[in-house]
Design brief:
Elements: H1 5-24, E1 33-41, E2 47-55, H2 58-70, H3 72-82, E3 90-95, H4 98-115
Parallel strand pairs: 2-3
Antiparallel strand pairs: 1-2
Helix pairs in contact: 1-3
Length: 123
């Protein structure tokens, strides 16, 4: 399977931004489990949307995302130092709740299976 240049650049940005957030950001508000779930890069490689998943309660998520959002310039500067591209894309950070949504759906399915809502013991 062959990946396009955009996909390869997106994966490299994903790996590098994840490393920057976990190792280089010193803001105490950045706590909990933070994952870079996806990076969408435009065809001309000038812009990148970086999706973050933050595990924790709502206050923890909000604080961590604000701190990371405030560090966008620092993250882009570090990205430029760690990867070789002719142009480092402008980055925009987005919150990705898909993991929490998946956990919620899995819990609901387990709840339905455990309560045996359908009255069939073989379900």
């Amino acid at each position: 399977m062959e990946f396009s240049r955009n996909e390869r650049v997106g994966e490299e940005i994903k790996r590098t931004v994840s490393e920057i957030i976990s190792k280089d950001l010193k803001d105490p508000r950045v706590e909990g489990l933070i994952s870079v779930t996806k990076v969408d890069v435009t065809k001309n490689l000038r812009h990148a949307k970086i999706y973050l998943s933050i595990f924790g309660d709502e206050l923890t998520k909000k604080r961590a995302f604000e701190a990371i959002k405030n560090a966008e310039g620092f993250i882009r500067k570090e990205l430029a130092a760690k990867i070789r591209l002719k142009f480092i894309p402008e980055i925009s950070l987005k919150l990705d709740d898909s993991i929490q949504h998946g956990i919620k759906i899995a819990k609901l399915i387990d709840e339905v299976n455990n309560n045996n809502v359908f009255g069939d013991e073989n379900v």
